[in-house]
TrEMBL record:
<feature type="region of interest" description="Disordered">
    <location>
        <begin position="1"/>
        <end position="24"/>
    </location>
</feature>
<dbReference type="InterPro" id="IPR052513">
    <property type="entry name" value="Thioester_dehydratase-like"/>
</dbReference>
<dbReference type="Pfam" id="PF01796">
    <property type="entry name" value="OB_ChsH2_C"/>
</dbReference>
<dbReference type="InterPro" id="IPR002878">
    <property type="entry name" value="ChsH2_C"/>
</dbReference>
<feature type="domain" description="ChsH2 rubredoxin-like zinc ribbon">
    <location>
        <begin position="26"/>
        <end position="54"/>
    </location>
</feature>
<dbReference type="Pfam" id="PF12172">
    <property type="entry name" value="zf-ChsH2"/>
</dbReference>
<dbReference type="InterPro" id="IPR022002">
    <property type="entry name" value="ChsH2_Znr"/>
</dbReference>
<protein>
    <recommendedName>
        <fullName>DNA-binding protein</fullName>
    </recommendedName>
</protein>
<feature type="domain" description="ChsH2 C-terminal OB-fold">
    <location>
        <begin position="59"/>
        <end position="115"/>
    </location>
</feature>
<dbReference type="InterPro" id="IPR012340">
    <property type="entry name" value="NA-bd_OB-fold"/>
</dbReference>
Length: 134
């Protein structure tokens, strides 16, 4: 397949993937580029690092650290308030996700892990690692 042909292929709707985000091992269901090894979540169709389309399903680490966060007070979709944060996974991928913890427990570089939760409208989010304190 030439580069021109690959651009003309329909793009799979990875957002329509209804498999659980949290894997049986507590990892994050995402993708990994077969060309450069970069992870993506949700699984990318085109690698943001090298533009390859050879991205396979992969289990990404379910642990990382909180880079920064904000609390959402107005939402047309979800009950408020809720907290969103950028999570740096242990393999280097940074992603936006819900943070399921009170504000007073949060700090930059707080160790967090992936968890399923009924508190989250998506059914998952990141929680502080036990023993980690602000
Ligand atoms: Zn790549």
């Amino acid at each position: 397949m030439t580069d021109q042909e690959s651009v003309l292929q329909p793009v799979p709707d990875t957002a329509a993937d209804d498999r659980p985000v949290v894997t049986e091992n507590g990892g994050l269901r995402g993708g990994r580029c077969q060309s450069c090894g970069a992870g993506s979540f949700p699984r990318a169709y085109i690698c943001p690092s090298c533009n390859s389309t050879e991205i396979h399903d992969a289990e990404l680490p379910g642990e990382g650290s909180l880079y920064t966060w904000t609390t959402v007070h107005i939402s047309p979709t979800f009950a408020t308030p809720y907290t969103l944060g950028y999570i740096d996974l242990s393999d280097g991928l940074r992603l936006l996700a819900q943070v399921l913890a009170p504000q007073e427990q949060l700090r930059c570089d707080l160790p967090v892990r992936l968890a399923t939760s009924d508190q989250s409208p998506t059914g998952w989010g990141f929680v502080p690692v036990e023993g980690a304190t602000a």
